[in-house]
Amino acid sequence: MNSKPLTYDSLKTVILYINPNTRFLLSSRIPSIQTAEKAVPLIINVLYFGEERHHFKVNETVYHYGIYQVDCKDKVPYRVSGQRDLNRKYTCDVDKFGIRDYINKADGWLPGNNGRPEYNLFGFNDREIISTKEGRLKKLEGMLKIEKQRLNQLMNYRPENSLVSEQDDEQSGIPDFKFICYESVRKYNKKELRTLKSEKVVREVIEYTNYRIRQMENELLPFENQKNNVRPEFEIHLNKSQEDGSCNVIERVKYTGDLHKAEESLINCVYIWMKPSAVLTIEYSRVERLFVYFKMTVWPLEKFL
Questions:
Q1: How far is Cα 201 from Cα 195, in angstroms, rounded to an integer?
Q2: Predicted confidence band at 248 (pLDDT cuts at 50, 70, 90)?
Q3: Are the C-beta atoms of residues 298 and 285 closer than 8 Å to each other?
Q4: pTM exceeds cut of 0.70
């Protein structure tokens, strides 16, 4: 049976009722429909632009973008922008070595160890005043060494009574133990280790500690790069996340030092901002300035129903 292509008008009708996110994908992959696609109003139920957190949402789909180091030893891209897990500080840009923008803006001074209630790179509120950049970095290196010693303690620890009920197992010390991790920089004592009442909990704390060590090493890596004049390779990735938890990279561009400057080309990848017109019902939006910049026209949905 021979199939016939849709007429131009029929194609426009089909496009009008396609899910916007599917429509973006089809238009970017099938150039032959782009003329018709751009001529059809875009119906969106929810539009949200999180300017400070580098993401935007179209209906149920979230697009988020960030800077990734792509030449890591384990071959897995590592995100260097965004909010850091250890100290909750937010990074937008990095320099050629990967040093965070808030550190460069402070003339290379690391946060913390200044007498003020400020977290250092590892998330510790260390009130010790260290008056040199090198001294603060050395302090962090010492903290990483202690964290590895803690991991060794956990690897060798065996709970005295591993026969605990399932309910006790769920409440056997993980929140308290995480608090101990940040309370002071030292090896654990026997009393603290005894709060881990089952082997399952010990394994979970070991996993958590391994994660912390990886994060600490990644925070110190840019300074090692600077010392050895190593310049990592960075890319900006545009990721697409669904409500079901799935996430995939839909676009990659080379990072040239300014994430915000790359926003326009990234957003164009999903075609939303460059529409000559759009039909929107906006649940919550922070994009008024973008409507003007990209010459979007906003119409009430009822006009087209």
A1: 10
A2: confident
A3: no
A4: yes
